Amino acid sequence: SAGMAPASGSAGTGISAGPAGGLAARLGSRGDAGSGGTRSLSAVDRRRFLAAAALVAAGAVVAEAGATGVKRIRGGAAARSRADIRLPAAADPGKPVPAGTDPGFVTGNADFYRVDTALTVPRIDPGSWELRIHGMVGDEMRLSFDDLLRRPLVERVMTLNCVSNEVGGPYIGTAKWLGVPLAPLLSEAGIRPGADQIVARSAEGMTIGTPTATALDGRDTMLVVGMNGEPLPLEHGFPVRMLTPGLYGYAGACKWLTELELTTFAKFDAYWVERGWSAEGPVKTASRIDKPKPFARPAAGPVTVAGVAWAQRRGVKAVEISVDGGDWKPAELLPVPSIDTWVQWRYSWKATSGPHSLSVRATDRTGAAQTAARATPFPNGATGLHTITVTVA
Ligand SMILES: Nc1nc2c(c(=O)[nH]1)N[C@H]1C(S)=C(S)[C@@H](COP(=O)(O)O)O[C@H]1N2
Ligand SMILES: [Mo]
User: Fold this and answer.
1) Taking the CB of residue 67, how many other CB atoms lie within 10 A of it?
2) Which listed residue, 65, 227, 249, 282, has the most CB atoms within 10 A of its CB?
3) CA distance 284 to 286
4) C-alpha 281, offset from chain centre
5) What is the pLDDT of residue 78?
6) How far apart are CA 285 and CA 119, in angstroms?
7) Is the CB of 283 under 6 A from ligand 1?
8) 113 lines ligand 1 (CB under 6 A)
9) What does the DSSP 8-state code read for residue 375?
10) Mean pLDDT in runs of 10 for the chain (393 residues)?
């Protein structure tokens, strides 16, 4: 009943229709289609613009009707696009990517995987964007994009991955995220006792349920506005998305965010939970071989085997390699900025001619080794070891 396989590489037809539904993955065009520029409006663009303008107007009416003291001045005609955004510097820039990592430690925005159900990428005017924090709170809050940017920003290098990733799969990336820590916002709103779930809602109707505890336990859960030194790309949730280190994206990383509702897991099932996926989505320890490529034909002699391993929140303590099912041999780990990123590893293999299999396994810093038992991504993340076959010349 899994129905999980993301439609990798095929633009537009990502939603598999198994009984449990599938996470749609679209790895199509990477260009930032939304940063304005000088091209003239197509008919579609014009329609979208008019619809957006109507939404802004409607929003203004609602705001006025709902105003009981605080007067909100809206952007009005001053619609803004991604190209107009100048992000402030982080008050807390965090740890940089350490020297000694290999290129590719940080995934470029254009290469960052994309998984969502959006048939068209939402285009949100940050000038009229608003985040509502409500539900089981003492005081409902409404924040404009400028309100967010006026708060102290933090920058953190963190890895994000998708629960639908197969063993060895591509739905993982690491970026430098600029955002507003969520915990202080929640404490200003005042969380009522028992509110164990934060339901994030997005402009296009996604719901993502995150354990409230993961916003309050000291990890860098944040409302993200910047990715690798730029405003969030449209595809990755512009103007604001959530990010919860240690949780798969479906459980902690709502894009195109518009609402946070404090509620309970008993009362509400988020989108993927309704379709059978686990309510809570902690990342499982995993590892991947990136070099050599499967079915490569390296020459006999020393061959560098390399890849990544991850166990966000716990950190990776060790990575080991087994050749042809033999003893596990330690790989070298390159430095990391924190336990919330993947680690790059490498292993120098004395390759002898003939066909060989290479397997990798990671052990997290609690001492727990990655399980070899195969599990499908559904309902809470794949397990099993990544194994590739190569033929040494
Ligand atoms: N609004 C919205 N947010 C979403 C999703 C979505 O479909 N819609 N998909 C989630 C999933 S399953 C993942 S893995 C991450 C992927 O984020 P990315 O596309 O920026 O890599 O976004 C999460 N946030
Ligand atoms: Mo995902």
Assistant:
1) 10
2) 249
3) 6
4) 12
5) 63
6) 31
7) no
8) yes
9) B
10) 36 32 38 29 38 36 32 52 96 97 98 97 97 98 98 98 98 98 98 98 98 98 98 98 98 98 98 98 98 97 98 99 98 98 98 98 98 98 98 97
For residue 160, give both structure tokens: 């994000």
The pLDDT of residue 383: 98
The DSSP secondary-structure symbol of 109 reads: G
| Buried-exposed string 269-305: b where 16+ CB fall within 10 A, e elsewhere | bbbbbebbbbbbbbbbbbbbbbebeeeeebeeeebeb
Mapped onto helix, strand or coil, the DSSP state of residue 380 is coil
Q: What is the pLDDT of residue 9?
A: 36
155 lines ligand 1 (CB under 6 A): no
**Span from the CA of 162 to the centroid of ligand 2 (angstroms):** 4
Asked whether 253 lines ligand 1 (CB < 6 A), one says yes
Are 116 and 206 a contacting pair, CB within 8 Å? yes
Cβ of 289 closer than 6 Å to ligand 1, yes or no, is no
CB of 142 within 8 A of CB of 258? no
Ligand 1 centroid to residue 323 C-alpha, Å: 36
Is any atom of ligand 1 closer than 6 Å to the C-beta of 162?
yes
| Protein residues with C-beta less than 5 angstroms from the ion ligand 2 | 23, 115, 162, 249-250
Region of 136 (left: φ > 0; alpha: ψ -120 to 50; beta: rest) is beta
Kindly report the pTM of this predicted structure.
0.84
Q: How many residues does the chain have?
A: 393
Identify which of 111, 227, 255 to mutate to test ligand 1's pocket (most ligand atoms within 8 A of the CB).
255
Closest Cα partner for 343 from 100, 92, 95, 94?
100
- Atom 18 of ligand 1, nearest CA residue: 114
Q: What does the alpha-carbon distance between residue 26 and residue 11 come to, in Å, rounded to a whole number?
A: 5
Q: Residues 94, 156: contact at Cβ < 8 Å?
A: yes
Residue indicated by tokens 């080991």: 320
List the structure tokens of 65. Answer: 């009707």
